[in-house]
Amino acid sequence: MMDSKRALEEANGDMERAVDLLRKRGAAKAEKRMGKEAREGMIGHYLHHDGKLAVLVEVNCETDFVARNPEFHTLVRHLAEHIAAAAPSAIDKDGVPADRVEREQRLFEEQVRRAGSPHTSSTRS
């Protein structure tokens, strides 16, 4: 909350500018953490009641303190359940057929064009 308040003050009350400032700061914080290794964590699982669907998910974190936290365990369990519910067609980006990637890219670009995004000039034709 204090970060939001400071950003609003720095932006002289301009909400859009404050949001931009917070995003930039968040990206900078994320960049600092990129080099850190997440050696702790846990593997969560979900097995559907009919036994025909199972999910294993590994979620890593930086400290064992986080890995032992009950909220972290709940997060991992919920992630496994959500993955199962989403019924993914592949386990990683390399497993997605190229024609599907191209179709999704076209649909996304069309949505951006219809929304009037300032980035429409940089999309592919």
Describe this structure in words.
- By secondary structure, the chain is an alpha+beta fold.
- The chain has three domains: 1-35; 38-88, Elongation factor Ts, dimerisation domain (Tetrahydropterin Synthase, Chain A), CATH 3.30.479.20; 97-122.
- 54% of the residues lie in helices and 13% in strands.
- It is built from five helices and two strands.
- It has helices spanning 2-10, 15-33, 64-67, 70-86, 98-115, and strands at 40-47, 54-61.
- The protein has a two-stranded antiparallel sheet.
- Strand 1 and strand 2 form a beta hairpin.
- It is extended and about 55 Å long.
Largest sheet, strands/sense/barrel: 2 strands, antiparallel
Estimated helix fraction: 40-55%
Beta-strand residue percentage: 5-15%
Number of strand segments: 2
CATH topology category name of the largest domain: Tetrahydropterin Synthase, Chain A
The helix tally amounts to 5
User: What is the rounded distance between the termini?
Assistant: 42 Å
CATH superfamily of the largest domain: Elongation factor Ts, dimerisation domain
Specify Rg, calculated over alpha carbons. Answer: 20 Å
Low-confidence segments, given as residue ranges, are none
Listing every helix as H and every strand as E from the N terminus to the C terminus, the arrangement reads: HHEEHHH
SS content category: alpha+beta
Mean pLDDT: 84
How many domain modules? Answer: 3
What is the approximate shape?
extended
**Strand order, sheet with most strands:** 1-2
CATH class of the largest domain: Alpha Beta
CATH architectural group of the largest domain: 2-Layer Sandwich
